[in-house]
Structure formats: C-alpha cells, structure tokens
Design brief:
Layout lengths: L5 E6 L7 H15 L3 E4 L12 H7 L3 H11 L3 E6 L8 H11 L3 E2 L2 E2 L7 E7 L7 H13 L3 E9 L15 H21 L6
Parallel strand pairs: 1-2, 1-3, 3-6, 6-7
Antiparallel strand pairs: 4-5
Helix pairs in contact: 1-6, 3-4
Length: 198
C-alpha cells in the first residue's frame, strides 16, 4: 500500500499578512491536492531564546525546541517558506533551526529530527528578486543539517500583488511552480519515509 507522505509546513515570519505565510498557505493547498497529509504550524507558537550554548548547558534544551524536534521527526518532509531580511533568512527561522539541530535525544531515545529529512523551499519578497538570496542561504543551512533539499522551488516576487482574495497566486507561472514543488516533495517524502522501514 503506498505511503501517504506527512508534510510539515511553516513560514519564517509570523507577521500578520506576511507574504511568506501566504506562500506557506499556498504550499499547503498544493500538497493536499497531491494527496499529502499536511500539518501547518506557526513558529510563533514555539518561542525560543536566542541560541546560546551557555543557555543550553545551564538550562537544558528548551521545551519548545523539543516540541519542534518531535513534530519534525513525526513528518516525512518539510515545506519552508522564508521571507528575505537584509539579503538573508530571518532570525526567527535561523534560531529555530539552530535549536532543533542541537537535539540529540528525547529521554532514552535517539532523536535527530533533521537527519535524512526531505525539504522543499519557497521564498517571497516585496520586490522583483523574490527572496532568492534568502532561499540560497536557507538551503545551505539545511543541507549542513543533513536535510535532503529538493531542486524545485517557488520564489514569489512582488508579494503585495501576488495573491488574490482567496490566497491563491494570481500568476499562472507561480501556480505551476508551486504544483511542481508539491509534487516533487510529496513523491520524495514518500520514498524516504521512515515508515517504509521494517
């Protein structure tokens, strides 16, 4: 029986009306149409201190880092939509990745949530460049965390005009790009699913 991939979707911004949030929502819709089981979260529900090894040493792993790590571990793949802040990914997103990448155990169980996970990346911005610098930095960070980042991506320019009243892309090229992302991610996530293991 074919595996129905479980995909976790989130944006790198928690601002109300954020283009990355709308892009993540579009990704969620596209993944559902591909038959994936999708969980959409906000990083704002998992507040974390700025990563500091002294904090980790003295206070232990923050509970929200553990919650995120467990959530990522329970899914076969990730779709991450990042905005671009000063030519790179936002601190909220990078900080969340930094903390989760430090998780090694959950009680007596080994837990390495990013290792072997597959991810698709999207970006957005106010201007024409569509956040491509941020998406390149995000890819480098996730690859360093041993995430398998797929090639198709969806970068959204002119975010203020990119979405209609239903949250769908106005531009057919963006709709096709997101469909390609969702299709490739769903297929790869099903192939790599740890639930395929005996």
């Amino acid at each position: 029986m074919p595996i129905i991939p479980r995909i976790l979707v989130f944006a790198g911004s928690v601002r109300s009306g954020a283009y990355s949030g709308k892009t993540a929502d579009a990704g969620q819709k596209a993944l559902v149409l591909q038959g994936a089981e999708v969980t959409r979260i906000s990083l704002g529900d998992y507040p974390l201190p700025i990563f500091d090894q002294d904090t980790e040493k003295h206070d232990g792993m923050p509970e929200n880092a553990m919650k995120l790590a467990r959530l990522i571990d329970r899914h076969d793949g990730l779709l991450v939509a990042t905005p671009e802040y000063n030519g790179s990914l936002p601190a909220l997103l990078k900080n969340s990745i930094d903390w989760v990448s430090r998780v090694r155990r959950d009680g007596n169980q080994v837990l390495r949530p990013f290792s072997g996970k597959v991810a698709a990346l999207c970006s957005s911005s106010e201007g024409q460049f569509a956040g491509v610098r941020a998406i390149n930095h995000l890819r480098a960070v996730l690859v360093r965390c041993r995430v398998d980042v797929i090639v198709p991506e969806c970068s959204v320019p002119n975010g203020a005009d990119a979405f209609d009243d239903k949250g769908d892309f106005r531009d057919e090229r963006l709709r096709r790009a997101m469909e390609n992302v969702a299709s490739a991610l769903a297929q790869r996530a099903a192939q790599l699913s740890r639930r395929n293991e005996p």
